[in-house]
User: What shape does this take?
Amino acid sequence: MKFELTKRIKSLPPYLFVELDRKKQEALAKGVDVIDLGIGDPDLPTPDFVVERMIEAVKKPSNHRYPSSEGSLAFRKAAAQWCSRRFGLDLDPASQVCCVIGSKEAIAHFPLAFVEGETVVLVPTPGYPVYHIGTLFCGGDTYYMPLLEENDFLPDLSAIPGDVAEKAKIMWLNYPNNPTAACATNEFFQQVVDFAKSNNIIVCHDAAYSEMTYDGYVAPSFLETPGAMDVGIEFHSLSKTFNMTGWRIGFAVGNPELVAALKKVKSNVDSGQFEAVQEAAVAALESDQSFVDKMRAIYTGRRDTLVNGLLDIGIEANRPKATFYVWFKVPQGETSASFCTKLLDEAGIVCTPGNGFGDPGEGYARMALTVDQRRLEEVLERLRNVL
Ligand SMILES: *Cc1c(COP(=O)(O)O)cnc(C)c1O
Assistant: This one.
């Protein structure tokens, strides 16, 4: 037998973190005490009250059957109410909310409803790889919108050529942003709504980091923008907010036709998330959110330790007001790859080369605040020795 992979699979770029993990495994095998700041995966546990609710929920036989693909009504109501409390959104749980098996799943599947050959999808770069890959799997064409520091890492909509805007059907956005940690202004979101309406483009906003904010900053939902509900769908995740990356749960909200399209795709490829996980997620969404405040305090402390230390060493790091990433310029004379390789080889530190998220990320690197203060001090100590 000869197994011939499709062009879509053969043309996949190596998944960023797989490559990083391979290098890290090599170092570990050599006995290096590796400090991993590479992947955006919280090191702290899911809150106890969520775990307790899961233990109860898993014992209920009614939860052992197939869930519905769109999620239980109880979950969708909890998500709608959370969005109402948090953003002032008025969402109908029946038609404007869909449970997703982690937002990555939905981000990858949503394009199946709207993208086919010739369809252009506007994708920010540097950015989360799944926006492009979802497009590629549907046979569409990605048009990259560069996120440049001089524009505060917001795409310049006026730089999108007219014929591209005409063929485009979806625009992906992600604020607070991974990897740059940039935040969107309400004015920018308003420009996006106007652009989307005049060009008939669906806006998909990835809001995975909406709760990971510091110094009193409160991130808006794209859907709060006047007119956004006519053009948009927003992807939320419990992964980062409640340290639940392994649980695979989130939700999509927004325009009823767009949510219905996502449900149509999903009902044909999956059978929903385990109802017990949905019940535990309800506990997280309905809680007083003091857990989130605790996490904010911890990440603020880590951020200040790392950023102050980097600045001290002479590395131009931005102090993020959201996300758990520090995005910084690599030192003069280094590339993203050469610097990250040097850190791993000489200091046992894993961080992510900025160009791995797209060409305009060249010259930058990203560190995730996913180790404790003591390890961050160790990172700075090692950096001082190497640089
Ligand atoms: C972590 C992350 C997500 C969330 O993924 P889940 O599948 O919900 O765990 C989505 N978008 C971005 C940009 C992320 O960094």
User: Anything to note?
Assistant: The chain has 14 helices and twelve strands. Residues 7-45+290-386 form a domain with the Aspartate Aminotransferase, domain 1 fold (CATH 3.90.1150.10). Residues 290-313 form the longest helix (24 residues).
